[in-house]
Design goal:
A six-stranded parallel beta sheet has the order 3-2-1-4-5-6, sandwiched between helices. The chain is of the alpha/beta class. The protein folds into three domains: 10-113, Helix Hairpins, CATH 1.10.287.70; 126-281, Rossmann fold (3-Layer(aba) Sandwich), CATH 3.40.50.720; 288-374, Alpha-Beta Plaits (2-Layer Sandwich), CATH 3.30.70. 47% of the residues lie in helices and 15% in strands. The protein has twelve helices and ten strands. It is elongated and about 115 Å long. The N and C termini lie far apart (128 Å). It has helices spanning 19-48, 53-64, 77-114, 136-147, 171-174, 188-193, 214-227, 244-249, 263-271, 275-281, 302-311, 354-390; strands at residues 126-129, 158-162, 178-182, 201-204, 234-237, 254-256, 288-301, 316-321, 327-329, 336-347. Strand 5, helix 8 (244-249) and strand 6 form a beta-alpha-beta unit. It is a multi-pass membrane protein. It is found in: Cell membrane.
Amino acid sequence: MQRNRRPLNPEHQLSHLPMSGIIKARIKRLFLILGGLLITQIMIIWAAEDLSLFESTWMTMTTLVTVGYGDFAPETYVGRISTIVVMFVSAITLLTLIVSDYIEYRFYRRERILTGRWVYAMKDHIVIINTPKTGGEQYFSRFASQIRAVPSYETVPIMILTRHFTNGLPTELSDNGLVHFHGSGSDPAALKAVHAGSARHIIVLAADEADPSSDSLTFDIAHRLSESNLGQKVTVECVRDENRDRFTAVGVRTVIRPVRTYPEIMVRSVVAPGSEKVLEDLFNYQHDHPHRYEIDLDDLTWADIVSALIRHGIGTALAYIDDNNDVICHPPTDQEIEGKGLIVLVKSSETPDVGVVEEALARYREFIKKWHDLQDQAAEEEAIAERAENR
């Protein structure tokens, strides 16, 4: 049995160090040695040959890269021997080793990126922890397209911290600029690797949107982030509404329900905190809900309709249905509306019937008519007074 056998490669002695650091340190060391050899060769040629410093440097460099223009060549024995020993034997060999190490480093980096073990230098990015149990690729793709449509978020980097995608991110995601790191949000080393402390936003997805027990894992991650004073950057998904107070108690900024088919809700909660509450209410019947009223619209502006409904405590107008059955959201406020229906955000416990809405619009028409009459009367009185002054 052989003992004290030397390893084939120096990095085998340093298995506790990252391979990228070993390779880069070796390349740096080889470059320093190569630089010393080149300076030595330049000085020898400058002293031994009838060449200027620039011509000596030029000949040394063309020899190193094996171009061999032939415009300059060593003529003395000293110059030729130094070229053989320093350049042919040593310098060109070192350059080959440097190129080989660089190629090795590129292959190593590619393999680490593919398997999610490359640590990127990121700042002001979005970290997404966990992957949806199903449809993760589609969810991340839609999330990225939606977040990139928001002003000032067009080029924001997105990092996924997950144990999925062990064979690399799907092309659709990598082409959109998403990267991933293989790990768990409950691992402090993984949170450090994704630079959670430098992130603009941190999103913690529910590991299983249908399993209430996944809230425990989410809470553990949220608690770790809060211990690092990152709670105000965190948006979490909570399966059971009863657990929301737990997340709020540890300083989490936003808590929402898992909505896999609409990542737009997550985008809204990230870029406009608070708006997710409005969007969530649209999907339940407990507090507020959008209600459709079949009603003819023909002589009021959108501003009039909105004001009429709010003044009478009915709700907030969200959209109207035109004569082609198209739903028109956020129409011009000063344009008269022609349609056959309204969609209004109303209280679920006190949903007004269509008669109340019609009455509110009729009263507002009377109010507008009286207001216009008063405006016309005031204008007429002003005109009379002006004519009297001119006499």
